[in-house]
Amino acid sequence: MPFTSLGLGPKITRAVAEAGYTEPTPIQAKAIPAILEGRDVVGVAQTGTGKTAAFVLPMLEQLDGKDRRRTMRALVIAPTRELVVQIDENVRQYASHLNLRFATIYGGVGERPQISALKGGVDLVVATPGRLIDLMGQGYVKFDDVEFVVLDEADRMLDMGFLPAIRQILRALPAKRQSLMFSATLSPEIERIAADFVKNPVVVQIGRRATPVEAVTQYVHEVPKGLKTDLLIHLLKDDAMDSVLVFSRTKHGADKIARKLAAARIPTATLHSNRTQGQRIDALKRFKSGAVRVLVATDIAARGIDVEGISHVVNYDFPPQPEDYVHRIGRTARASAIGDAVSFVSAEDYPNLHRLERFLGRGIPRKTVDGFVMRSEAPVAPVVPVRASTRPASPSRFVSRRRSRP
User: Model-level pTM?
Assistant: First the structure.
């Protein structure tokens, strides 16, 4: 199915072709026609399946050709600065043949350029909740003409505690609007947000609930905590690990890992909330370009990473929640590519590992490393039976609880 069959106009399809895409992904094929029809949409799909284009393309199509009042007509809300920047890059790429204006609003940088952009008139704004509310409070943001609202990465916004901010923004929006919500996972909390946000939505769910990308090969290395860095350096001797995202639980831990890799002459960058916005953008650029082979990041900072060609994700610190694991390993195997997810597991990680395996409904293979000698043996994990995860919720649960929206 080509993009031209979805109802998109020639200027959009031309830009898509110039970006190198020939046919839509499943979520794009199902969501784009519904959005063009004016329907509210809830899209649930694994990371790397093309959710951004699924809402950006039809929204741009409907914005093009309308009046040129240069008031905000579309708003995309995303949880992190990096994701805002990534979405904005996609928007500008897909709108390369359109006469539209765009702005980004996020923290960590000065307000004045963002305020100037809003005063100059924009058609579409991509924003994080915190800075958006700040500018709303100062009177620089007007929602009177907003026609389209998107909540992207809704599950992560919930995890990051943004729900009160989201509700405050939604209360300020026009009741008559088209609302779109996209998420990598589905949970009762997400369903409750959807019930308040969208009205009689088309639910597009691709794949199983909260299931990692099938193309990711997952395995575990059992290793004492004190040998994790040695093991990582040993693994990085393999040239196949050419673009590696390493997850650390803490900012201090990320910096420590990066220093040890740099001492081993492995080009490395870090990404966490203590880095300035300029440093974070520079780290991503160097990682994308291949100037650095390894990017060490924390969960929150890495949420907005959309980098094609990541060969391996390494869970240096094992994630405490199964959903975090899903989001992490989804950074590789993007756009139908393949990838590996490697998890280091020490004695204290076994309860979380077994919780994850029950969540996935299957075990994750343990793997030894050729040529790496353990100075002490990793403790043996207790045997815990793996039970299948629960079945996904029925789309019929997305029934609006309000007759009018906030």
Answer: 0.64
